[in-house]
Each structure stands twice: as C-alpha cells, then as structure tokens.
Amino acid sequence: MASLVSTHKAEEGRAHCGRAQKYLETSWLRLKFSQDWDSAADEYSKAATCFKIAKSWDECLDAHENACTGYKNSGSLYHAGKQLEQSVLIARDKGDLTQIEKLASRGGLLYRQSGYPEAAKQLLVKAAKIIETSLPEDAVSLYKKACETVSTEDRPLEGAQFLESAGKLMVRVKKYDDAALILLNAIGLYNEAGAGSKAGRTVLKLVLVQLGRGDSVAAHKAYATYGGYCDSFQAQAAIQLTQGFTELDHEMAKKGLSNPHLLDLDNDFVKLARSLQPPAAANNNGGGDDSDGEIDLC
Fold first, then answer.
1. Is residue 241 part of a domain?
2. Which DSSP string do the residues of 99-155 spell out, in sequence order?
3. pLDDT by residue (tens digit) across 27-86?
4. CB of 223 within 8 A of CB of 203?
C-alpha cells in the first residue's frame, strides 16, 4: 500500500512539473511572449511536496530548486529562500549533508535580501546544528554568517555567541589559529555589546587555544589584555596557566591544567586542556633545550 501511495504521489509530482514547464513556454502563435515564473514556481512547489511524500529525494530537491528559481525571477525572494530552507531538510532526510552549507547560505542570503534577517539567522543556525557533528567546518561557515546577519541588525551579543559556537568547532578539528581569531572577534563583540562580564569564559578559552598553538606569549598577552573580563575563578585558572607556561613552572602549569573551573567550559576546551602537557621545569644552570626561551609542549 505504501509503495502504491509513493508511486501515485511521484506521478502527481511529475504532473505538476509538466504544468510548470508549460507556464515557462513562450509562443508567438498563442501571443504568449513572457514566462509566467510565479505560476511555474507554485507548480514546482506543489511537485516538491508530492515528491517528499513519495520520498523521491532527488526529484524533490530538483523541484525545490526550480521553485526557488521561479520565485526569484518573479521577485518573491522570501518564497525563494523558503524553498531552499525546505531543501536543507530534504538533504538531511536524504542523508546528503554535504549540500546543506550551500543551500542554507543561499537561503539565508535570499531571506536577508527580502528584508527578513531573523528568518535568515534561524535558517543558518538550524542548518549549522544539523551538520555540527559530521561537517564541523561547514557548520563554522554557517555560524559566521549567522553572526554577520545579526551584527548588521546591531545585535553584537548574539553575534558573539554564534562565534563562540564556531570557535568550539575549530578547536574540535584542531585548527587553533582559526579558533584564536574567532574567539578574539567574539570578545570584541561582547565588548561592543557592553557585556564584557560575559566574555570571561571566552578569555579563558582563548588562553587555552593559544597554548594549544604552542604560543605561551600569546596566551599571556590574551590574559593581560582581556583578563579584566574574568571573574576571580576564571582569573585564577588563567594566571596559573599563563605563568606556568611562560615561566616554565611545571607545578604551576599543572595546577592550571587541572583547575576545576576549566570544567565549566565546553567539552572541546576541556579536552584541549587535558591534551596539553605542562612544560619541563627550567634548567637551573641555564643550559638544556629550553635555554632559548622556547616551551616544550610535547
């Protein structure tokens, strides 16, 4: 029975596609000189619904794409974006997550162009959450675009939160240079929002990321510059970490890495902290491999 329903719905969808194509035909004999994009888009949208019920995913995606083109050409940018939002869900159901970043990015841009930035943000974040686990770098791209979307609406606090999500994913894939830059931008947005007190956790994350890069000087600079945003517990952990690594104080660094307040951070940063090794103690006679001031993070 289910297969009969699917077959019937797929045929119905193809019939809608056929009608859509007729709306796009022009004919001098019938005095039809322009394509009726809006009517064609409506038919393609109906076709996509039929293909979805039939679980004919490729035909469904094609129909949504054609509907998007039709609405865009008729000037209905919001409805064009809606078609791409539906495509994101179809790609998820199909199990083809590689398409989602491009579909959501295009849909978000159409929503913004039509004057609906909130719809754009919701689409970008929803899509990012779908692919966080499987395609973290694609999710980072979407979180950055969500940040850009809300920042143009003078919502820097929300933008900072999206950047934190992006930074977490960059740590997950061990791209610490990118993570450091993202977290720096997040701190800047917290400051712009007048919500510096919310940036303390981000500062501590940045210290860990700089240590993950093997750059204890940058870690120390991060705390020296932004440490005022930290509460007393965050400051204690940051000081232990920066002093321990820059001064080659093995015991101090060890205390910092085992500081219980690191557990308040996202799990990816907790894992980063656990992966770091305290530096070997400085050689009292000034010799050894650490005499040039470099830190052994291995």
1. yes
2. GHHHHHHHHHHHHHHTT-HHHHHHHHHHHHHHHTTT-HHHHHHHHHHHHHHHHTTT-
3. 766 656 688 999 999 999 999 999 999 999 999 999 999 999 999 999 999 999 999 999
4. yes
Residue 1 confidence (pLDDT) above 90: no
Q: Which residues pair with 27 in a beta bridge?
A: 32
Give the H or E element holding residue 233. Answer: helix 232-246
Last residue of a domain, one of 58, 82, 116: 116
Summarize pLDDT for 135-192 with one digit per residue, the tens: 999 999 999 999 999 998 899 999 999 999 999 999 999 999 999 999 999 999 999 9
CATH classification of the domain holding 226: 1.25.40.10
d(CA 193, CA 153): 12
What is the pTM (predicted TM-score) of this model? 0.89
The two tokens of residue 292 are: 């040039």
SS3 157: helix
End residue of a domain, out of 79, 94, 116: 116
- Of 122, 53, 124, 117, the closest CA to residue 90 belongs to 53
Let me know if 73 is exposed, middle or buried by CB neighbors in 10 A (0-12, 13-18, 19+).
middle
In this structure, are 101 and 4 located in the same domain?
A: yes
Is there a contact between 183 and 190 (Cβ–Cβ < 8 Å)? no
Strand partners, 32: 27
The whole-angstrom separation of Cα 290 and Cα 162 is: 39
108 and 211 both lie in a single domain: no
Q: Which domain holds residue 43?
A: 1-11+39-116
Structural domains counted in the chain: 2
Task: Return all residues near 140 (Cβ < 8 A) that are at least 6 apart.
Answer: 166, 169, 170, 178, 182
Q: How far apart are CA 279 and CA 298, in angstroms?
A: 8
Q: Are residues 265 and 177 in the same domain?
A: yes
